[in-house]
Write a structure and sequence with these properties.
The structure is a single chain. By secondary structure, the chain is an all-alpha fold. Helices cover 67% and strands 0% of the residues. The protein has one domain.
């Protein structure tokens, strides 16, 4: 064992033909990797490309197109409603999404997570914040002001190792309940969206057939141990079925090939072009402040879920390749500011539609990160694939099988005994009454003090870990949510401005 620790990855690597199964080979690859932190990692010397890397790369590309487009559309609608001089639509939202996919893909997928720090997960999209974007815009916030604040707060949390500390203070019961709630509510949302789309085009049977085929295919992939193929296989199946049943008349290819405008001055330079908002002012920063605090507070449970997915699917002795929560926060923070500065509007977080299928496929971060970044650049340049990726039978199915069903399954796997089920049940109940972030903060405080779950847990924790940190997180989350009107809209910031 000591000899193996001294040998390099290249020396320990063995061809797949020497293993009894492909799974054994992938396990061995994870166990021998020794990624360098903020130093150059090279293919062949520190990691290898495998064909399994294509699956999370494809899944992440499909997922991020959908997410970025949804964020852009939400900002466009919210700002158009807030300001009389602003009229932004779907074409604008897709153009902004293309900006987000080009420069950040090169700098943070390929360079940062691929070559410089393979333990930092890719910086993707903050899905739970999407429903709030309309309220953020109506409150008078500015995408660039929000990005600057979010980046600063994220860097501070990363510098003081706050993210990993919060992950370590979350028990399996609390984490399991959080994943179960996120998985179930997310799955129901995607199912409802598919049915609403099919009824909207007066072809309700198409939605039911697409969902039925998705369930069968997902079950077959799980049975044969190929769940990591779920996103591309099910999304492509949904596309073919919908087209075969005649639903393709609402699928239009409008986005032209070419590069979007990458000049920051065009996007933020005046109130006559780009976002038509100009550079942010003091009032924009004030309006953005509580939302930035809330977004960063929501990072820890998001990151926790992705790291847990690796732990559940990777073999033993693979701690060196698990995502580092604090390094991921660093890249997310910098990516947030850079991506928005060049004209984007994404609210970033750990990239779930990449990490979840990558963990299921037993692949480390770097190979798939480089492939995903390359795919994003190609798709953003071509343009028209984005129109297909945001079509409901593709986008909703991809999110359903690639994110929410795996989250649900992972949460159920973590609930192993009565103590875990109690913490998980209360977490689910609290999330249903309030929201997942506040539920996580509350149940973490109760669980760490033995009021729910394992009564012996407080004996292993200091006063700082039992009361000060969980209590502080709960207060910060509660104040931020009250300020932005998440709990009682009539008292939020929108009512004051």
């Amino acid at each position: 064992m000591q000899e193996n620790q001294e040998k390099t990855y290249r020396e320990l690597h063995r061809p797949s033909s020497e293993f009894a199964s492909r799974s054994d080979y992938l396990d061995h690859e994870l166990q021998i990797m020794k990624p360098r932190r903020w130093a150059l990692n090279l293919p062949g010397r520190d990691f290898r490309f495998e064909w399994e890397d294509l699956v999370p790369a494809l899944a992440g590309t499909i997922g991020i197109i959908a997410m970025y487009s949804a964020v852009g559309m939400a900002w466009a609608e919210g700002l158009s409603a807030r300001w009389e001089h602003i009229e932004l639509g779907k074409a604008f939202a897709i153009e902004v999404a293309r900006v987000e996919m080009l420069i950040p893909a090169l700098l943070f997928c390929i360079l940062a997570s691929g070559f410089l720090n393979p333990r930092a997960n890719l910086a993707g999209n903050h899905g739970p914040m999407i429903p709030l974007i309309g309220a953020i815009a109506l409150a008078g916030a500015h995408p660039l002001a929000l990005a600057i604040l979010l980046g600063i707060f994220g860097l501070l949390l990363s510098y003081f190792k706050g993210g990993s500390k919060l992950v370590n203070l979350t028990s399996e019961g609390v984490a399991g309940g959080l994943l179960v709630f996120l998985g179930f509510t997310g799955a129901m949302s995607q199912i409802g969206s598919i049915q609403a789309w099919s009824k909207g085009i007066e072809m309700g049977h198409v939605g039911l057939i697409v969902l039925a085929a998705t369930i069968v295919l997902y079950a077959v992939l799980a049975k044969v141990g190929k769940r990591w193929l779920a996103i591309p296989a099910c999304a492509f199946t949904g596309l073919i079925i919908a087209l075969a049943l005649g639903a393709g008349f609402d699928l239009t290819f409008e986005t032209p090939t070419g590069l979007p405008n990458l000049n920051p001055v065009y996007w933020w330079g005046s109130t006559e072009q780009g976002w038509m908002l100009g550079l942010p002012t003091v009032s924009h920063f004030i309006a953005s402040l509580p939302f930035a605090i809330l977004a960063v507070a929501m990072w820890s449970p998001d990151f926790l879920g992705h790291r847990i997915f690796q732990e559940l699917n990777y073999p033993k002795r693979t701690d060196r390749v698990l995502m580092d929560v604090d390094d991921t926060m660093t890249t997310c923070s910098i990516r947030q500011m850079v991506g928005t500065a060049v004209g984007g509007c994404n609210i970033t977080s750990s990239w779930g539609t990449y990490m979840i299928p990558a963990a299921i496929a037993k692949r480390p971060i770097p190979g798939g990160a480089i492939l995903l970044g390359s795919l994003c650049i190609i798709v953003a340049y071509l343009g028209f694939p984005m129109d297909a990726a945001v079509w409901p039978p593709v986008m909703r199915v991809a999110l359903l099988v690639g994110v929410f069903l795996p989250l649900l399954e992972a949460g159920m796997q973590m609930i192993k005994d009565a103590k875990d089920s109690q913490s998980a049940g209360i977490c689910v109940f609290a999330a249903a009454v309030t929201n997942p972030v506040l539920a996580w903060a509350l149940t973490m405080l109760l669980d760490n003090n033995g009021l729910i779950g394992d009564k012996e847990r407080p004996k292993t924790l200091s006063k700082l870990d039992r009361i000060v940190i969980p209590g502080g997180v709960l207060v910060i989350c509660l104040l931020a949510m009250l300020t932005v009107g998440m709990l009682e809209p009539q008292y939020g910031i929108k009512a004051w401005l």
